[in-house]
Amino acid sequence: MGRLEGGSGLGGDWWHGVKQPRNPWSDGPEFITQCAIAPGTNYTYKVIFSTEEGTLWWHAHSEWTQSTVHGAIVILPAEGTTYPFPEPDGEHVIVLGSWFTFDVNKVVDFDLLSGAYLPKAEAYVINGQQGAFFNCSSEETIHRISVDYGKTYLLRIINAAVDSELFFAVAEHNVTVVGMDGSYLKPIATPNVAISPGQTINVLLTSNQPLGHYYMAARQYVTEPHPDISNATTAVIEYIGNYTPPSSPIFPLNLPEHSSIEAANGFLSRLRSLASEEHPVFVPQNISHSMFIVISEKEITCPNSSCSTFDGNRLSLAMNNITFLNPTTNILHAYYRNISGVYDTDFPDFPKLFYNFTGDDLPNGTVIPTIGTKYSYYVVGSGIGNFNNETDPKSYNLVDPPELNTIRVPKSGWVTIRFTADNPGVWLWHCHLIRHLTWGMKTVFIVQNDDTPETSILDPPYSMPSCEKSFVNYIQELEDSDVVQPVQMNGKLNFTSVFMLDDEKGKEGGRKRLVEADLVALAAAKVVPYLTKTLTFARDNSCQDLPLEVAFYELLP
């Protein structure tokens, strides 16, 4: 993965739902397992698949960039095996997303400083197109899918919207749900589905209706009286054949209203793992460690009295009354290198006080989609109201619960998940409503090594993105200022000089060297060659000492 020179630098890509056994180095979240990929540099990920099969996705994991930087991951059955359902005649990826008409990262940065409420999407899209019912809609803004009568198609649906659970339906057609989050389910025939941010659903659609045009549509699910976006995003399914096209496609009356709690909870209550001989489940029966996590709203004081709110505070979210603050170096590096002062390990297993946890609404309260730590979880139970440890476990499904990587916590309710912590590493666990994530609703699971190399974290790659400023950013600062100042890199070198390091092209793990093409940028910054020498020191995020060929440049007065 590369970054264009002149950009601001971004965090990595999150391989959503890919378990990455023993390989946290390529997990991607900024300041959790890596630092930002600097402008003009690149980082190659090693993505390791294991038991996943179906549809997953990837997305950027820095600020709100994931609203546009995302894509599908399609995992086919292993060679020599088949789907646990009849082979479809075709398939289509359906990505549900958010639409903003402004630079969302800049607005978010301002809102965090001022204490303002974080932005909301202005529209939803299907495969990048808004559909027929938004401003400036036209024939060019509608995604279209052609189907043959009597054929069955696999739709791989991804909710990449950053801020909403969505209902999805196809006019006049039922669908059969066969998989979710990279695992198979017992088939469910349904007129619609509910899909939380971060989730994926595989459905079979049989084109068995009269030849014509039919809308597929997605609508926000929110339990407040008024949705953020009242219109539905649409695409069109067009039957192939000899007929007169209608003046307008048929709209899905089977698409639930935006506040239909019954439709959302009813759909999720029907989910069951396939639990077949070919696709078994391994639900933990004996629990060695339990946690009771309460999601809540709180306020924190803005730094330097920067907020324009009446009390100088801004909104935040917490788990067990703890709000996560991003460190300045990545937690994986600190853990692996035994660096103190980067993170605490005192996250409580239970809230300090017990009260009516469901008495108050979270902002824009609907559901809380929580993404896990490179695990899939068995959702053994859920309900409305406060969890009762005496009675609610009696209703747990310990036979064939759905195995999901993104868990939906119902509004004013609870959910119970079980998993086996058998994947050593440092793994982010957070809400997938991006406003909640930004407000601090996240934490980190550190799964320690076991006694053998096969149950321990893999060795780190040769190099990883540095937490220090990139050379390009230093050059930009020099160009913007007439002041000549010493530049300090990695806290180890301090010269009235700057230097540029890069990998030799085509030599993975090769020595570092000066790249001649960057002399143009150096000249623009009024610098001249001074000396070249070889030094040995540890890069900030590399886990070994490296010999570096360094070219220094003296700043001209």
From TrEMBL:
Keyword Signal attached: no
Cofactor entry: Cu cation
CC terms in the record's Gene Ontology section: apoplast
Compartments, record wording: Secreted, Extracellular space, Apoplast
Family (UniProt): Belongs to the multicopper oxidase family.
Enzyme type, top EC level: oxidoreductase
UniProt domain Plastocyanin-like: residue ranges: 15-78, 91-241, 375-450
MF GO annotations: copper ion binding; hydroquinone:oxygen oxidoreductase activity
Catalysis performed (reactions): 4 hydroquinone + O2 = 4 benzosemiquinone + 2 H2O
Keyword entries, A-Z: Apoplast, Copper, Glycoprotein, Lignin degradation, Metal-binding, Oxidoreductase, Repeat, Secreted
One of the GO BP terms on file: lignin catabolic process
The enzyme's E.C. designation: 1.10.3.2
Name of the protein: laccase
PROSITE patterns found in the cross-reference section: MULTICOPPER_OXIDASE1, MULTICOPPER_OXIDASE2
